[in-house]
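Can't paste images in this forum, so I'm doing it all in text. The chain is below; anyone willing to post the predicted structure tokens underneath?
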Amino acid sequence: MTTQVRIELPAHLRTLAGVGREVSVEVEGTATLRSAIDALEARYPMLRGTIRDQVTQQRRPFLRFFACQEDLSHDSPDTPLPEAVVSGKEPLIVLGAIAGG
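Text version of the structure:
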């Protein structure tokens, strides 16, 4: 089973990949955060290492994952994505966090 997942990227990653605000990737099997990011990095190799560490596969600091108004950043990367994302109604959002004082 192949699923089309829409992914919204923050400005700095859009610039790096040379894409617009939203991209669409094909995910094989169950659509999870891990499989969606795997598909994104396969399609846009210049993003490898920018969203998650290439060795540990852990999310990079200052990046968050959201879908359906829920923060998925601390969920297991193998948790299935919400149905609204799988059906294409909602995008998976990669959001650059803002820090400062």
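Residues 2-96 form a domain with the Ubiquitin-like (UB roll) fold (CATH 3.10.20.30). The chain has a mean pLDDT of 92.
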